[in-house]
Amino acid sequence: MPVIQTIFQTLRRIHVVIWRTAYRFYCNAHAGTRVPSNTRIAPTAKLELETGGSVRFGSGCQLTNYSVISPYGGKVELADRVYLGHYSIIYGHGGVTIGEDTMIAAHVVIVAMSHGIDDPNTPIAKQPITKKGIKIGRDCWIGSGVKILDGVEIGDGCVIGAGAVVIENLPPRSIAVGMPAKMIRQRGLSKGASLVQR
């Protein structure tokens, strides 16, 4: 039995290597898209390049199972060693950039667009959309279930608590929680120290 198990494990590893190599070549055939050989894309993760736009990865990025990146005509850029957790989604209409060493936990949604809602007589789906884009700095930790909406810039070194909804810019080293997300303190400061004014 251990011999059969070893054989199956070896075959599975070979299958994953072949799949990753083939998928990388497929992605790199799209204009503007770059997937380095050391980017690890899980078999159930997906780059929806048929939506238009491009996705570029730095060195050593990881996309875990069931994560999705859909550029929708925009440019999604992940710097070196960005981690995208299970079931997370990035919609890149207005462009999304994520700095190096940033960790994005499971079920995070990053949406670089918004539907117009001003005309009550026109279906929302037919109203103009805005595409301001989203920038996330380096060395950030985005907690599980966070939502980051269009037009937001998150500074380097920020920590966003699980379940937060980010609708405003956050300065570097912010620790932010809540719906909408509010900075409760900055990393490196004692709890009693004053916060940077936004």
Task: Please describe what this structure looks like.
- There is one protein chain.
- This protein has one helix and 21 strands.
- It has 198 residues and is of the alpha/beta class.
- The strands form four sheets. An eight-stranded mixed sheet has the order 1-4-7-10-15-18-20-21, with no helix packed on it. A six-stranded parallel sheet has the order 2-5-8-11-16-19, with no helix packed on it. It has a five-stranded parallel sheet with strand order 3-6-9-14-17, with no helix packed on it.
- Strand 20 and strand 21 form a beta hairpin.
- The radius of gyration is 19 Å and the shape is globular.
- The mean pLDDT is 91.
Fold topology:
Elements: H1 2-28, E1 40-41, E2 46-47, E3 54-57, E4 62-63, E5 68-70, E6 75-78, E7 83-84, E8 89-91, E9 96-98, E10 103-104, E11 109-111, E12 114-115, E13 129-130, E14 134-136, E15 141-142, E16 147-148, E17 153-154, E18 159-160, E19 165-166, E20 174-177, E21 182-186
Parallel strand pairs: 1-4, 2-5, 3-6, 4-7, 5-8, 6-9, 7-10, 8-11, 9-14, 10-15, 11-16, 14-17, 15-18, 16-19, 18-20
Antiparallel strand pairs: 12-13, 20-21
What form results from the Cα inertia axes?
Answer: globular
Q: Tally of extended strands?
A: 21
Helix content: 10-25%
Uncertain regions spanning at least 5 consecutive residues:
none
Q: Compute the CA-based radius of gyration.
A: 19 Å
Total of helices: 1
Backbone structural class: alpha/beta
Largest beta-sheet details? 8 strands, mixed
Mean pLDDT: 91
Could you state the order of secondary-structure elements as H and E?
HEEEEEEEEEEEEEEEEEEEEE
Q: How much strand content do the residues show?
A: 25-35%
C-alpha termini separation: 63 Å
Strand order of the largest sheet: 1-4-7-10-15-18-20-21
